[in-house]
Design brief:
Blueprint lengths: L1 H12 L13 E4 L5 E9 L5 E6 L8 H6 L2 H8 L3 E10 L3 E4 L5 E4 L2 E10 L14 E3 L2 E6 L5 E5 L5 E8 L25 E5 L5 E6 L2 E5 L5 E5 L2
Antiparallel strand pairs: 1-5, 2-3, 2-4, 3-7, 4-11, 5-9, 6-7, 8-14, 9-13, 10-11, 10-12, 11-15, 14-15
Length: 228
């Protein structure tokens, strides 16, 4: 039970691009907006408890029929893992990304997936965080949201701004990009938080040099904090 709770926390807090520090050439990609991806978490209990996060982006389009056909127990046997958790589908909202040191590629469920993070479960708290809880994650990425293209932004009670980097079809399988503009009433905003859609006049660039700060809303959409 404790293990399942821990993995639930990982799915809630780290369902985002958290690149592992594995050897490999940097990845640069564009045309990402509203592109679908999924993640498979493989959990190993020994010699030390870890979760490996495998991401489909750039390798397969996570077709719904394939995703629905996946069996977590069978995937665990395939990967030699103690437990597997399926996280997705999700859709990116940035226009371009650069990633330093992407992880290795393997095959899971007949599709190629890239390992984007390895999480030390011994260091993760056991209580899943409620929506709008601040979480710090380790990654080295550069996200670009193009000028003139709509972004979806939170402002917290301290005036800090957060931009949505991915939306999820986990809680609401019918959620579409066109609905994001008026989503403020659907995401369980706490007192003092606001939500808006806007079109920046200049490119919005979010650079994470080893660490990023994120929150998720009640629909499991993910936002990264914009530096002041």
């Amino acid at each position: 039970m404790r293990l399942r709770t821990t993995v639930a926390l990982l799915a809630a807090a780290l369902a985002t691009l958290t690149m592992a520090s594995a050897a490999g050439a940097a990845i640069k990609d564009s045309g990402m907006r509203d592109t679908r991806y999924c993640e498979i978490f493989t959990v190993f209990l020994s010699p030390a408890p870890i979760a490996r996060i495998n991401n489909s982006y750039g390798l397969n389009n996570c077709r719904q029929g394939w995703w629905e056909s996946l069996d977590a127990a069978a995937l665990a046997d395939e990967a030699g893992a103690d437990l597997v958790l399926l996280n997705g589908p999700r859709y990116w909202l940035m226009d371009r990304v650069s990633v330093t040191d992407p992880g290795p590629v393997s095959t899971l469920g007949g599709k190629r997936m890239r390992e984007v993070a390895t999480i030390d479960l011994a260091r993760v708290g056991l209580a899943p965080p409620p929506p709008f809880t601040t979480v710090r994650i380790q990654r080295d990425t550069r996200f670009v949201f193009r000028a003139g293209r709509r972004i979806f932004e939170l402002t917290d009670p301290d005036g800090r701004r957060w931009v949505m980097q991915s939306y999820a079809r986990i809680v609401d399988p019918g959620l579409r990009y066109r609905q994001l503009r008026g989503l403020g009433r659907e995401i369980g905003l706490p007192a003092g938080w606001t939500y808006r859609a806007r079109k920046p006049k200049r490119n919005l660039v979010l650079r994470a040099r080893g660490q990023a700060t994120i929150v998720q809303d009640a629909l499991k959409n993910t936002y990264q904090r914009i530096p002041r």
